[in-house]
Amino acid sequence: MLLTSKHINNEIDEPKEIVLDAKNIGVSFHSGYRTDDYKSHMINFFKKKKEAKDSKVVWPLRSINIAGYKGEILGIIGSNGSGKTTLCKLISGILHPDEGKLDVDGKVSALFSLGMGFKKELTGRENVYLNGMMLGIEKKKISEYIDDIHDFAELGAFMDRPMKYYSSGMKARLGFSVAAHLEPEILILDEALNTGDMAFGRKAAAKMKDLVSKAKMVILVTHSLRYARKNCDRLIWLDKGVVREVGKPKDVIKSYKATIPERKPKKRKKLELKKTNTEIKNSIVVKAENVSVSYRMKKEVHWALKNVSFEIKEGEVVGIIGHNGAGKSTLCKMLTKILAPESGMLEVNGDTTALLGYGTGFNSQLTGEDNIYLNGMLLGLPKKRVEQDYDKIVDFSDLGSSIRKPVKSYSSGMRARLGFSIAATLQPDIFIIDEALSTGDAEFKQKASEKIQEMMENAKAVIIVSHSMRFVEQVCTRAIWMEKGQVRGDGDAEEIVKQYREDVNAQRERAKKE
């Protein structure tokens, strides 16, 4: 199909080939009625919950008019629950519109969130073949690209290790590498790069631009406005199921930011963004001395952590940064006693609550409401305590009526909201957040940063694993830079982030010369 771009969006004059054409499309469901799987029906039966007598039609998307052009990277932004994932499912054919007309000219490959479709007991290599064949690609074709996928993902020996040992960032690397290398005509990335590190984000951006020069188009859903502005040709802003604006990234982002309300500072005492030594106490909350964790692969010993030493004092907000596979998630699992160090000494003084990735511990068949109680009990809290904080958790998550829907219907951003809200409201001594805010929208990240600072009145320490250097600079009093299982840098958050950025840029320049 060849039409003038101006015919659709009024921002480009020259004719371009339309690959995606949506005219007044909408998708609906009936509240009070769910076409769930058998497991969900059984859970609902045994819970004996009263369903609403009168169901009504709800439209998560309606009156959507958009076009996508050959050779472009089209970004989709918007708050959690705005309909971004639903739109991607329509384009990929997982859902069908209840009204309107949708034309997609090309074969669609979609990567919904990190590692979706991966089987944790299989190795990375086995999952490449599994995912490729699920996309309808012949095994012979996958074998031609397997080495390129391995090299691009930069997983090293982990390629032949079960994926249950991968961090979320490593899953993101492999998922993107599979989707991008198997010659898609239209590639959809729905929040799939949010846990990627800085260097891989740049590498993925270059790969996307290479893709659109050979294929038809890339559709990118992201909460990183900076990433969207730098790498997308146009943006679509979705808000509560409708298109608010379509246009140049800088213009759409400006409009979107204008709708994010400024939060009034609370009068209560809290950790200031300009960090001061007076907020840090002398008592040691976490102490690690020469801690090491290893695993065997093909009779060889690999070190996830080796001779790691550090101390965390009461009152500190510590950011853990580094490339995917640097040992950050392993460190968090050790602090929460999921893993035990093979050598060295580790002391943790206080009750620890960990949010290891968004939605960890959620039962997808249960509602958000039920998962609040489930997670509370998993943290060892009595039901009465959870009941006391229930309204605070729901209010902070901003999920509204979605709290009564099964978690399997949530976007990754919605899971991030609920997971953080549960863990933060229950006020642990030591709060560990491992890449759990990577899918949060701008407004929620702002709320979360203020909540973390507020928590410091009662908590002993907060430990945050994040690929968002701005978030670490803003919220953390200190940063620990991990690389290849060892501590590369430890000190003031802004200084360590500066060193990390310089190292990433230096690696990038070396790669260009090679």
TrEMBL record:
Could you name the domain of life of the organism this protein comes from? Bacteria
The protein's matches in PROSITE patterns, at most eight in alphabetical order, are given as: ABC_TRANSPORTER_1, ABC_TRANSPORTER_2
Keyword match Hydrolase: no
Looking at the record, the residues that make up the ABC transporter domain are 40-265, 286-509
InterPro entries cross-referenced by the UniProt entry? AAA+_ATPase, ABC_transporter-like_ATP-bd, ABC_transporter-like_CS, ABC_transpr_TagH-like, Bact_Polysacc_Export_ATP-bd, P-loop_NTPase
- Cite the SUPFAM superfamilies for this sequence: P-loop containing nucleoside triphosphate hydrolases
Stated name of the protein: Teichoic acid transport system ATP-binding protein
